Amino acid sequence: MKTRGWRRRSAASAEQRGWVDTDESARSRRRRWAATDPARHRFRSAQPPSRTSPLRGRKEVEAGTKTIQELGRKCATLMKIKKHYGAPSLFRIVFIGPRGSGHRSLAKHVSERFNLVHVDFNNILEEACLRETALGEMLRMCDHRCAQKIKSEARVQIIERYVLESDCLKRGWILTSYPKTVEEFKLLDMISTPPNRVIVLEIDIQTCRKRLLNHECNFTSEHEFSCESSVTDPDYKLDVHFNNYKDIIEQDLQEYKENIDAILQYAGETASIINATGERKCVKERLEACLMRPAPSAKPRIPYPPPTIDPMDIEFDPDDEPDLSIFDDIRAPEPKYSFI
């Protein structure tokens, strides 16, 4: 009985002095005490990672004599540092699809969603033609005088100059309207910053042809509309774009059909194929999910394999004396002494 009375009196006195908070648990009190006394404890910038968490380790900040403001800035800095797991941290995407598949509008959506630079080859080709450079003069000459197709080397040179600008290097890029042949794809893989993701839209050519034949363009705003959509604004003057003439559409779709098999064979397992049929919202979701997943695990593409050397073609005579002059560039010269 005496022991129980002593316990009751000690608990009552502790509660009167403010040592015991009956409304909170002991764990909550320890957490509150750690927050009010940072000099004795460490602040963790993240919770211990779970099995499904991408963070495999803990990040800790030594408190010491730091103030709350300094600890907060340090924790915020550590939280911004993301470790790379699986998917590339900077996208360099080649987006391939036939005309009428909506690949340019989808690329624009991806560029806004992932903060990328949308690089459309047709647009940068027009910009390069207008520049007063040697390359621009050559492009204008090929376009107007020679009426010849621009060489693949000049095309990839235009793309390489553009993607090496600071904005593309910092944010990444998504390329459309290029490459159109497997030779252009191989040249693209040989630039300083080659693509690390290849996405191909899978869609029926007949569907693309139907979409292109139903497109009309407002030449004032350069916006395209479908013939099935109703435009009530009287200021909109719609007409067929010159690229949407039937013969040009057939030529572009036939060129795509002739080259897509070779492109897919060269890309191999590095290419991700997206079903582009159905509602546009579903296609966007499939595309975003593809980019959020890690890149396909496959062997890297080899644009041009190294030449094979036949051992029988190598001439070697074991009785020949080695030429010592080949070591002159890699060894220090011997000191020369004069006793005169």
UniProtKB/TrEMBL annotation:
Cross-referenced InterPro entries: Adenylat/UMP-CMP_kin, P-loop_NTPase
Name the Gene Ontology biological process terms.
nucleobase-containing compound metabolic process
Where is there biased composition of kind Basic and acidic residues?
18-27
Which is an annotated GO molecular function term of this record?
Answer: nucleobase-containing compound kinase activity
Compositional bias (Basic residues): 1-10
> Kinase as a keyword?
yes
Location of region: Disordered: 1-64
The UniProt keywords, alphabetically, are:
Kinase, Nucleotide-binding, Transferase
Report the domain of life of the source organism: Eukaryota
Name of the protein in question: Putative adenylate kinase-like protein C9orf98-like protein
